Hints:
The complex is a heterodimer of chains A (about 190) and B (about 400). Chain A is mainly α. Chain A has helices spanning about 5-10, 20-30, 35-45, 50-80, 90, 110-120, 125-145, 150-170, 175-190. In chain A, helix 3 (about 35-45) runs parallel beside helix 6, helix 3 (about 35-45) packs antiparallel against helix 7 and helix 7 packs antiparallel against helix 8. Chain B is of the alpha/beta class. Helix content of chain B is about 40%, strand content about 15%. Chain B has 13 helices and eight strands. In chain B, strands 1-2-4-3-5-6-7-8 form an eight-stranded mixed sheet. In chain B, helix 8 (about 260-270) links the parallel strand 5 and strand 6. The chains are: A mainly alpha (about 190), B alpha/beta (about 400). The interface between A and B is large, with 31 and 43 residues.
Amino acid sequence: MSLDLQLFRLINGLAGQSPLLDAGMRLLVNEYFVPTTLSLVLVALWFGGWRADEREINQRAVLQAILSLALANGLVKFCNLIYFRPRPFAAHPVNLLFYRPSDSSLPSNPAAVGFALATAVWLHNRRAGAIMYVLAALFALARIYCGVHYPLDVVAGGLIGALSAYLVVRKLGFLDPLITLAIRVGQRLYLA
Amino acid sequence: MLNFGTGALAPSYFLFAFLAVLGTLQLVAARHKLIGLSLIGGRRGAIWGYLLGAALLGGAFGWFFTTRWEDIFRPGLAGSELFVLFALASVGAVGFTLLLASLLYRPSVELKPCHAHAAGASTARATAFERRALGTTASACEVASARSPIAKAGVRLVPAASACEEVSFGQGQGMLYLPQDQRGPGPAICAVFSPESGPYALGLLAGALAREGFVVLAIGLGGQPRYPEVLALLPAAQALLARREEVDEDRLGVLGFDLGADLALRAASSDERVKAVVALAPLLQEASLRPGLSLLREMPYGQAIRWARHRARGEVLRELNPLGYTSKLAGRPLLVIYGQDDGLVPPERARRALAESGASAEVRVVPGERHLTLAHSPEVAHMVARWFKERI
Lengths: 192, 392
């Protein structure tokens, strides 16, 4: 039995033992709670900051997080085109606490989304980034706990998300003028 | 692909995101003192903003996840659909917040002129509350000042006793505040205010200075000041002061607020009669006129848009070039005061700019005050009065 499956069984095996833990994980696993919370952190970051320079760093982080999200989604779609891995519930008996998604299990798109947003922010703002990393990690863990992803899926998804953010923030310099333009327009409108 | 029609959750999610963003904005507004985003009117303490934000945020999450608990565990909205819905809800919530904050913050009392020595008899009749706050001898000018939109932005009232009269000089008009019980000629201050504020708007400060024994001539820049015409204002006002028998013309000071402070710096640099200068929140640089989101710390969005349309301010500031003239004050004392929360001119930036210009200015920062509230602060009034007393 692979390490991936062993780890999956270890984490998913906890499901059904504590109604409270199950409820918490079900809250985290769905597509609404964590993504919306992460998005609200981005809203707060956009308007937060005492000084103009501090605010501009935060706003750059927000725009780069959105671009990272788009890139991560694109990379996940590309992976799905060339490789399909069945979901855990399709191959093994699992404690399923979620509906049965039909797309490829690897890489995990929710993990890619969470880690893309968190990494893009973390590269600019450690405090907000750390909060987002915690949320992204809980999101990924809940996907395993509820039986819809293997650990390797979320690790791959997280790496794709983090790599996307790193590329957008550090390597794709040609996007900077676009980001700067968006912030300048926002400043003209007294919204940035 | 977007296909909201099949998603029964779409309207609920939109409302959830809308309310959650609304709550987040209130938390941010309370944390960063953004009046323009605050739905509590900007007058109450930040704690109310935090409470409202937490209630909206908690209510949104509680409502959505309790009423839609079963639905969210069925295949529903795709990620791209959620993204679009959240973006639309965010734009809607920001727009709604800006609009509602502007409506809630709109000044309810219009400034009205007052007449000489007409305490309680003019259009600015004091209410019982205002008499308690200002003192029974408060002039109509002081009452009008206390009711001004700026004074309503959480400003404490200064009890003061002084008389005031409207005066005209050259092309300008102003309000002359005279100390009571004055014996012989005394020191005088010419006070220049921002384009937006009339001569009554800073009556609290002028009244406080008059109470300390200064004759104060308060003049406004007019709604649309022009260069070089504005340069004639201060010399004409000082000539008027010099003619008054209550004034010792060797003890003249100049006080300015906002763009009026920039004019004061420029005018004093070439007028040897001015013995001391106090600049309250001078703009100094054109960068101050591009504050971005920080402007919402000073005023609601509707007012900010009107403020931005005031093109003359930028032209006058550029021509006045206050930083280029502060070093020419030639040893005469200069006090520059900023509010710690100034949304237009960050105090540290101003301090740096003044140091680089070679000016020997004493820069003080008053905690808890913004750009627009600075001139209404009792602490500033006392600070300015004490400073002038020691120098003129």
